[in-house]
Each structure stands twice: as structure tokens, then as C-alpha cells.
């Protein structure tokens, strides 16, 4: 049996001013054939789950083409056309197929197709026909559409945030598609899309209320006839009609059961809608809390947990060592994993004004990197750093300090990471230590803080700092919770701000909680 593997993975922040051009996809690598195996075969990503299933069940996995880029703005028509023209031609030319496995993100928006993932699956179905099983595995932040579900036989969503189960869920999707191709099961899907959001600051699945909702979703798999259940948190920065939470139930030929289970799970979440949208501390409040909470550095070699799923992260604070180590501030407004600029200075500016020392963060600033490289290691210079992408992420901050290590950017992380990725690249990067007690890692590529090796590879030991700013909400947890005394989520401004009222939506559903107070379930 021969299964095709392909996909376009993009989380589109429609409020970002940085378009997802073909060149942006090229920077993040567009892999073909063996390149896909080389990149993901030994990772913990969805595609590695597909490849593992192929080995275990004995089908032939044929990786065709895979394109991804970090979360930024809308995918250009040129990018979508060039990517799909090539990979769909591969799908046509290298068939016939016994099945297709898609690895998309699920929150992609292109200039031509607001529901890019729905359009992608429609074309795949058109190419292979109605009888070839098609499976798709999505990120938990997917805005899943009814079209995406209708165009596939099996649609599986990751269940942890931060994303620690991508390989496991990819494997489950491949297993169900294999059993479908063998004629062992007849998967029937139903998606329920209640009119509600979960705020980005409440999406950590290791704590309530999301923990309980995920537990309920997992427990529903024990119902006789149910093959799989998924809960998607959705992505609130894509201004599209399907934006919001959703539940997918897959049964073995029982459409009524699939509908009932999905609707029951959604109804439970509806009762927790207020808790799912509570706000978090401001920048000044968070920095003050961090200054008051810090006790001392984390002992070398001590970690709080071995992350195997989202709930394990929540147990870290109960460790006897958890009071020691840095206070980690999650910079919500500059969540690179959500499509932000990576150069926000809002927290840095307030920290500087408060005289905070023992402070560590990254900043995307190719201009500052070039200046430092020109000056050389050991040079004492003044810089205006960050705040250069747009007017949403603060103004450049003036710093004076010393140029430290200079590096080309690639590094490899073997510890658990959000999404299961292994290889990273910050671009040309520079360690800069200011005269007022701050350490800034300047990068020439937009990079998140999802791997601690980002710091170690530059000679930085984050365990020794008082305050570490991680640009993200949940994605940095696998990297930083093992060494953190405490994690504080910060309600900072930016293109991924927790204050959704700051954005002007044009295409979302109306009514939609928390913007409006809909009636749910709808009255007949």
C-alpha cells in the first residue's frame, strides 16, 4: 500500500503586516522527498508519526513536498499558487495512491482563500477521488472548518498546549487511515463549532479550565463505537468565519453518535466560557511580582519535570526545587508562535525604567546585529534595539553595553519542545550585555523561545538570571518551566495581545463570545 505525505503548515495572523511570501517559505525550508525524512524523521513532529506508522503497519510512505513558515501575515497568492502547483502535480504524477496523509497547521489564510486548509483538502480530494482515504493532522490552534472535515475521512487534532503530542496524534491519524484503507473501519466525522473563543492566555492544557476539557475529550474515546475525539482551541488572530473552538468526533459508521459526542463536549466548554477568557497581569504588575518572588538561581543540573504531556507541566511548581530559578515572563503581545514581530520592546522599556537587573530576553533586530558584527567581540557600543517592524510593538530602546559572542545561528535541541521540532536557526546572532545589568540576544531572524539550547549554544545559562522574558504564551513552557521558579503570563500590547478588543475584525462570526453573548445551544 502506498500513502502520499504532503502539506502546507502556516498559522496566519491576519493582523500582521509581514506577508507570508514564497520567499518566507523558502527561508523556513521547503522540503521535498528525502529532505522531509531528513528533517522530521527523528523529530517528535506530526510527519514523524506518519513515518513511524508506516514502519509499524507496513505501508509505503512517500513524502512528496512540505512547506512551512513561522506564523506571520496572510499567505500571498503567489506563494500559495507556487507551492500547490508543484505539490499537487507530484500528487497527480506519482499516483495512484492507496491513501493520503496531510500535515497542515489548520489556521492558514491566503489572499485568495480565507479557509486555505479547506481549499487545500478540496483539491486533494478532487485529485485522488472519493474512494481514496484522506487523513489530516492539525495543530491545536487550528480554526477547523466544516469543509476541512467534509473533504477528509479522518481529521485529528493535537491535544496538548504546549504541543507535546504532535507525533502521537500524527501516528493516530495514520493508523486510522491505514485501517480505513484495509476496510477494517468506516470513519464518520462530525464537527461542532460553538460560538466561542478561548483567550490565548488560557490555552495551557496543563491547568484548568483547559485541562478538564481535554480530559473530557480523551474520556469520550472510551465510548463504544468512537474511534477518536479532538478538541481545537482555535486561533483568535485569524479574522475568518471559522475562527474559534471546535470539537471533532470520529466514529465507526455511526453519524448520530459522532454528532452527539461532539455537541456534548462543546456544551461542557460553554459553561466555562467566562473562565476561558479571564485576563492576566500588566507589564508593570508582572515585573513587580517577579522582583518580589525571586529567591535565587536554579542549581546546575536540576530540573523540575520530565514533560510527557501537557499535565506534566503543571506539576512543576510542586517540585521542592521550584522556588529556585528565574521568574519567567511570557510576553503575550510578542508571541512569535502567534505571528508577532519578535522585536517588541514594551517589557524591556518598563524593566529598564524600573532598574531591573539580571534580565534576559531575545530581540529580532538585523540592523543591530550588523552593527555589533562590524564592531566586533568586546567592543563597547550604544544601540537602539527593537521596535522596528511596525508601530504595535514599542519604540527602539537605547542601550549601552558590550558585544559578546557572535554566531551564525543554527542549533539543535534534543530536549522536549513545543511542536516536537529539533532544528532551529536564529540567523546571525549576537550576545549583548548592557551596562545596567541586562542581557539581550539579538537575532537576524524572527525566532521564538521554544528551545533552551537557543541560550546554551550562545554561552548563556538562563538558570542564573533573575528574570527571563520568553516571547510566547504556552510554547516556551517545555523549554523554560523545567528551570523556572515561577511563570507569569504578561498582558503586553502587540499583534498577539490578549486584549482582543484592540483588533478590528471584519470576517468573524457574529455573535461570538466574548465579543457578544450568544445563545447556545441554538433554540429550535
From the alpha-carbon coordinates, what is the Rg to the nearest angstrom? 23 Å
Instruction: Record the strand order, biggest sheet.
Output: 12-13-16-17-11-18-10-19
User: Could you say how many structural domains there are in total?
Assistant: 2
Mean pLDDT score: 94
Share of residues in strands: 15-25%
> Between the first and last Cα atoms, what is the distance in angstroms?
47 Å
Helicity, as a percent range: 25-40%
Instruction: List the total number of helices.
Output: 15
Describe the largest sheet: 8 strands, mixed
Q: Which structural class is indicated by helix and strand composition?
A: alpha/beta
Count the strands? 19
Characterise this structure.
The chain is built from 15 helices and 19 strands. It folds into 2 domains: 2-277, Rossmann fold, CATH 3.40.50.2300; 283-498, no CATH class. With 524 residues, the chain is of the alpha/beta class. The chain has helices at 22-27, 34-40, 46-57, 77-93, 116-128, 146-150, 166-181, 210-219, 255-270, 283-293, 310-314, 346-354, 366-375, 453-456, 477-480, and strands spanning 2-9, 30-32, 60-68, 99-103, 134-138, 154-157, 187-192, 226-232, 246-252, 327-331, 359-364, 380-385, 397-407, 410-412, 423-425, 429-434, 438-443, 467-470, 486-490. The chain is globular, with a radius of gyration of 23 Å. The strands form 4 sheets. An 8-stranded mixed beta sheet has the order 12-13-16-17-11-18-10-19. Strands 2-3-1-4-5-6 form a 6-stranded mixed beta sheet, with helices on both faces. A 3-stranded antiparallel beta sheet has the order 7-9-8. The model is unreliable at 316-321 (pLDDT under 50).
Amino acid at each position: 500500500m502506498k500513502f502520499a505525505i504532503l502539506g502546507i503548515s502556516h498559522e496566519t495572523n491576519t493582523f500582521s503586516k509581514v506577508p507570508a511570501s514564497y520567499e518566507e517559505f523558502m527561508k523556513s525550508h521547503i522540503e521535498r522527498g528525502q529532505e522531509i525524512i531528513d528533517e522530521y524523521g527523528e523529530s517528535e513532529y506530526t510527519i514523524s508519526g506518519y513515518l513511524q506508522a508506516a514502519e509499524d503497519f507496513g505501508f509505503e510512505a512517500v513524502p512528496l513536498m512540505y512547506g512551512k513558515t513561522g506564523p506571520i501575515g496572510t499567505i500571498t497568492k503567489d506563494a500559495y499558487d507556487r507551492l500547490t502547483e508543484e505539490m499537487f502535480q507530484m500528487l497527480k504524477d506519482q499516483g495512484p495512491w492507496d491513501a493520503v496523509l496531510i500535515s497542515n497547521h489548520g489556521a492558514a489564510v491566503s489572499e485568495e482563500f480565507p479557509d486555505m486548509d479547506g481549499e487545500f483538502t478540496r483539491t486533494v480530494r478532487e485529485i485522488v477521488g472519493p474512494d481514496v482515504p484522506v487523513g489530516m493532522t492539525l495543530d491545536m490552534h487550528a480554526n477547523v472548518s466544516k469543509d476541512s472535515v467534509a473533504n477528509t475521512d479522518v481529521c485529528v487534532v493535537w491535544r496538548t498546549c504546549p504541543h507535546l503530542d504532535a507525533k502521537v496524534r500524527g501516528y493516530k491519524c495514520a493508523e486510522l487511515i491505514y485501517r480505513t484503507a484495509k476496510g477494517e473501519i468506516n470513519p464518520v466525522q462530525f464537527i461542532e463549532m460553538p460560538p466561542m473563543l478561548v483567550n490565548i492566555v488560557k490555552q495551557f492544557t496543563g491547568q484548568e479550565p483547559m485541562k478538564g476539557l481535554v480530559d473530557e475529550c480523551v474520556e469520550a474515546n472510551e465510548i463504544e463505537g468512537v474511534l477518536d475525539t479532538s478538541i481545537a482551541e482555535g486561533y483568535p488572530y485569524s479574522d475568518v468565519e471559522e475562527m474559534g473552538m471546535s470539537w471533532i468526533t470520529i466514529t465507526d459508521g455511526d453519524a448520530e453518535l459522532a454528532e452527539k459526542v461532539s455537541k456534548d463536549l462543546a456544551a461542557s466548554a460553554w459553561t466555562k466560557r467566562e473562565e476561558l477568557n479571564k485576563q492576566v497581569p500588566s507589564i508593570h504588575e508582572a515585573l513587580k511580582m517577579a522582583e518580589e518572588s525571586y529567591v535565587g538561581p536554579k542549581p546546575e543540573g536540576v530540573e523540575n519535570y520530565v514533560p510527557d504531556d501537557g499535565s506534566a507541566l503543571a506539576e512543576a511548581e510542586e517540585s521542592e526545587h521550584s522556588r529556585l530559578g528565574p521568574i519567567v515572563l511570557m510576553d503575550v503581545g510578542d508571541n512569535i508562535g502567534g505571528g508577532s514581530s519578535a522585536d517588541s520592546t514594551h517589557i524591556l522599556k518598563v524593566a529598564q525604567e524600573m532598574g531591573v537587573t539580571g534580565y534576559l530576553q531575545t530581540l529580532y533586530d538585523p540592523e543591530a546585529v550588523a552593527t555589533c558584527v562590524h564592531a566586533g567581540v568586546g567592543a563597547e557600543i550604544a544601540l537602539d534595539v527593537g521596535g522596528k517592524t511596525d508601530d504595535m510593538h514599542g519604540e527602539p530602546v537605547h542601550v549601552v553595553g558590550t558585544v559578546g559572542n557572535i554566531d551564525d545561528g543554527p542549533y539543535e535541541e534534543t530536549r522536549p519542545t513545543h511542536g516536537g521540532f529539533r532544528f532551529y536557526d536564529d540567523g546571525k546572532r549576537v550576545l549583548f550585555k548592557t551596562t545596567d545589568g541586562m542581557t539581550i540576544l539579538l537575532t537576524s531572524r524572527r525566532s521564538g523561545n521554544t528551545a533552551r539550547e537557543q541560550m546554551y549554544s550562545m554561552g548563556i545559562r538562563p538558570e542564573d538570571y533573575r528574570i527571563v522574558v520568553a516571547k510566547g504564551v504556552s510554547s516556551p513552557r517545555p523549554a523554560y518551566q523545567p528551570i523556572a521558579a515561577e511563570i507569569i503570563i504578561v498582558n503586553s500590547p502587540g499583534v498577539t495581545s490578549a486584549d482582543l478588543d484592540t483588533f478590528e475584525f471584519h470576517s468573524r462570526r457574529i455573535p461570538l463570545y466574548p465579543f457578544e453573548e450568544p445563545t447556545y445551544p441554538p433554540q429550535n
